[in-house]
Amino acid sequence: MNSYPESRLPGPTAYNTALLLIRIAGSLPFLYHGSAILFGAFGGPGPQKFAAFMHAPAIIGYLVGLAQVAGGLAILLGIFTRIGAACIFVVMAGAVLLVHLPHGYDVSKGGMEFALAELFIAIAIIILGPGSYALGAGLPHPFHKL
């Protein structure tokens, strides 16, 4: 049961604008960090050094970087948004569990604060989709729902 009177609920324009802002805020860090991992941009490690830091095969560096760049683009543009958010969810679940959890919550101490926030943004986007202000909104059904 909704505790707000109908007149207090946000209309479709406010709802879709909020989703657009969430998509922009949620995608930009992945475009930045994914480019650093996948391409070595912005002084980033590139895929081999990232994988070596994780004590993983080089393919993991390529997959994590690709998931972040492709997922970030999908979320930002609103094309295959839920698939992109699922990629981000997997990367952030791995980041929380494999990297940040032992350091606690505080991001300044290497904790999971930011990774957990991005994970929850990805979950929200998976649930709600991209909204109307998305390039995928013009795709035929069922593709605009992805």
Description:
- The chain is mainly α.
- It has one domain.
- It contains 5 helices and no strands.
- The longest helix has 28 residues, at 12-39.
Helix percentage: 55-70%
Poorly predicted regions are none
The best one-word shape is globular
| Number of self-contained structural domains | 1
Order of helices and strands: HHHHH
Which whole number gives the mean pLDDT? 93
Strand content: under 5%
Number of helices: 5
Termini separation:
29 Å
Radius of gyration: 17 Å
Give the class from helix and strand content and strand pairing: mainly alpha
Topology, number of strands: 0
Major sheet description: none
Ordered list of secondary-structure elements with their pairings:
Blueprint: H1 12-39, H2 46-53, H3 58-77, H4 81-100, H5 113-128
Helix pairs in contact: 1-2, 1-3, 1-5, 2-3, 3-4, 4-5
